């Protein structure tokens, strides 16, 4: 097996960071798909188009989170079986998970087309941007299956310890997306539709390219007839891991979508500010989310290998890394909130900039809360207790949504901003207490 990182042996910090860094860079690069659209649209088309792309981002994050959750759950299965050195079961799991998630991705694509208009009404999208938002979304929906291909094969490779190759394919795709965005919008004058088409083309290139790479470079993972049987135990394990992780991811992003609906009720200026600031916010804490996913792979491989003392040692070292990183990135976002906003918004849009700065300084001061929460998600998923990740997500998002509705009526839009970190810290407290009472013995 051509694994880049066997996380069950060697120096924990070196192994974990060597695996995590490409994962971090890869997810940051993946965010550039929508960020490039935001930059091009905000700079060259206008505020209404910027608000439309921003609202679309929350919706697409929710939809793709469903697929990402399924793929992450499968990756936990791949890591556990890889730690057990059970390649036969790993390959059977590949077949079952690919068929299940692939079919679901197609169903999600058609359902998104059919329900597009109703979704915009639920999100309280202002009438003046519904047309351009619908045009943008219907093209973006075409890329849902490409999102499945990329995330499935990248999570397969990460599950067996290779986090570098998914990054390479993603970098190529993002560079292509930038070039196509500028070409379709500035040269062909395709407007917001051109930005969407550029994104979809780039997504398919990364997804199909990665699938071909796995087939060529990993002949030991090519499926034979005996690997394509429906094994009930394997299907059950994948269904539980993928289903619960999918539920956790979709609940998390559904809560964000509900918050987006509250934000939309405040008008186009608030929408545009939120659209930009939430992207900056997401990119800022994305590395620690990916460190949590790398940590999850580390835990899963060692869980499969039965190395429980190494797991406890890894938890302590990973926690120190997360705390230090979050303090650093919090300082950066808090200090440079205004310049970061001005990357995406023209200087004359002062109201949008000021609202975004307010959001970023509240969220940016609290990244340690989301950093620890991502570690807890990864840990419980890796030890085959994904239901606990769902519980923590429900707590975090439930509190966030309830407080957003209540506080926004009392202190205005700033109440929405404060509801988010409060939800993080309460979920952290529950997850840590459960670990201390149940597992730290």
UniProtKB/TrEMBL annotation:
<keyword id="KW-0406">Ion transport</keyword>
<keyword id="KW-1133">Transmembrane helix</keyword>
<keyword id="KW-1003">Cell membrane</keyword>
<dbReference type="Pfam" id="PF01554">
    <property type="entry name" value="MatE"/>
</dbReference>
<keyword id="KW-0472">Membrane</keyword>
<keyword id="KW-0812">Transmembrane</keyword>
<keyword id="KW-0813">Transport</keyword>
<feature type="transmembrane region" description="Helical">
    <location>
        <begin position="359"/>
        <end position="380"/>
    </location>
</feature>
<dbReference type="InterPro" id="IPR050222">
    <property type="entry name" value="MATE_MdtK"/>
</dbReference>
<dbReference type="GO" id="GO:0006811">
    <property type="term" value="P:monoatomic ion transport"/>
</dbReference>
<feature type="transmembrane region" description="Helical">
    <location>
        <begin position="56"/>
        <end position="82"/>
    </location>
</feature>
<keyword id="KW-0050">Antiport</keyword>
<dbReference type="GO" id="GO:0015297">
    <property type="term" value="F:antiporter activity"/>
</dbReference>
<dbReference type="InterPro" id="IPR048279">
    <property type="entry name" value="MdtK-like"/>
</dbReference>
<feature type="transmembrane region" description="Helical">
    <location>
        <begin position="192"/>
        <end position="216"/>
    </location>
</feature>
<feature type="transmembrane region" description="Helical">
    <location>
        <begin position="165"/>
        <end position="186"/>
    </location>
</feature>
<feature type="transmembrane region" description="Helical">
    <location>
        <begin position="322"/>
        <end position="347"/>
    </location>
</feature>
<comment type="similarity">
    <text>Belongs to the multi antimicrobial extrusion (MATE) (TC 2.A.66.1) family.</text>
</comment>
<feature type="transmembrane region" description="Helical">
    <location>
        <begin position="387"/>
        <end position="408"/>
    </location>
</feature>
<feature type="transmembrane region" description="Helical">
    <location>
        <begin position="136"/>
        <end position="153"/>
    </location>
</feature>
<dbReference type="GO" id="GO:0005886">
    <property type="term" value="C:plasma membrane"/>
</dbReference>
<comment type="function">
    <text>Multidrug efflux pump.</text>
</comment>
<dbReference type="GO" id="GO:0042910">
    <property type="term" value="F:xenobiotic transmembrane transporter activity"/>
</dbReference>
<protein>
    <recommendedName>
        <fullName>Probable multidrug resistance protein NorM</fullName>
    </recommendedName>
</protein>
<dbReference type="InterPro" id="IPR002528">
    <property type="entry name" value="MATE_fam"/>
</dbReference>
<feature type="transmembrane region" description="Helical">
    <location>
        <begin position="94"/>
        <end position="116"/>
    </location>
</feature>
<feature type="transmembrane region" description="Helical">
    <location>
        <begin position="414"/>
        <end position="437"/>
    </location>
</feature>
């Amino acid at each position: 097996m051509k694994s880049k990182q066997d996380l069950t042996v060697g120096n924990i910090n070196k192994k974990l960071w060597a695996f995590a860094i490409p994962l971090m860079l890869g997810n940051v690069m993946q965010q550039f798909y929508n960020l490039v659209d935001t930059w091009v649209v905000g700079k060259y088309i206008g505020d209404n188009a910027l608000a439309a792309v921003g609202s679309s981002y929350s919706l697409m994050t929710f939809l793709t989170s469903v697929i990402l959750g399924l793929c992450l759950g499968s990756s936990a299965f791949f890591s556990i079986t890889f730690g057990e050195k059970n390649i036969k079961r790993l390959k059977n799991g590949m077949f079952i998970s690919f068929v299940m998630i692939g079919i679901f991705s197609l169903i999600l694509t058609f359902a998104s087309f059919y329900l597009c208009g109703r979704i915009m009404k639920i999100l309280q999208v202002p009438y003046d941007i519904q047309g351009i938002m619908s045009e943008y979304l219907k093209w973006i929906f075409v890329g849902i299956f490409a999102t499945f291909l990329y995330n499935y094969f990248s999570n397969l490779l990460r599950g067996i310890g290779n986090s570098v190759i998914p990054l390479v394919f993603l970098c190529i795709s993002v560079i292509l997306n930038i070039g196509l965005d500028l070409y379709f919008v500035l040269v062909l004058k395709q407007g917001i539709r051109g930005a969407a088409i550029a994104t979809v083309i780039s997504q398919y290139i990364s997804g199909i390219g990665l699938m071909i790479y796995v087939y060529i470079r990993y002949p030991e993972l090519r499926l034979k007839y005996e690997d394509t049987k429906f094994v009930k135990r394997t299907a059950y394990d994948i269904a539980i891991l993928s289903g619960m992780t999918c539920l956790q991811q979709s609940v998390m992003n559904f809560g964000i979508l509900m918050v987006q609906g509250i934000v939309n009720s405040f008008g186009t200026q608030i929408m545009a500010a939120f659209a930009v600031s939430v992207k900056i916010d997401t990119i800022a804490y994305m590395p620690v989310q990916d460190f949590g996913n790398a940590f999850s792979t580390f835990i899963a491989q060692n869980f499969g290998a039965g190395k429980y003392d190494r797991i406890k040692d890894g938890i302590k070292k990973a926690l120190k890394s997360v705390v230090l990183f979050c303090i650093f990135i919090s300082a950066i976002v808090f200090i440079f909130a205004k310049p970061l906003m001005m990357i995406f918004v023209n200087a004359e849009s002062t109201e949008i900039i000021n609202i975004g700065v307010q959001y970023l300084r509240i969220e940016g001061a609290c990244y340690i809360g989301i950093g620890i929460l991502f570690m807890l998600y990864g840990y419980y998923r890796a030890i085959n207790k994904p239901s606990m990740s769902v519980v923590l997500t429900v707590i975090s998002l439930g509190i966030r949504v309830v407080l957003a509705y209540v506080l926004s009526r009392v202190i205005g839009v700033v109440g929405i901003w404060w509801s988010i970190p409060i939800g993080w810290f309460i979920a952290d407290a529950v997850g840590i207490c459960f670990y201390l009472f149940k597992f730290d013995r």
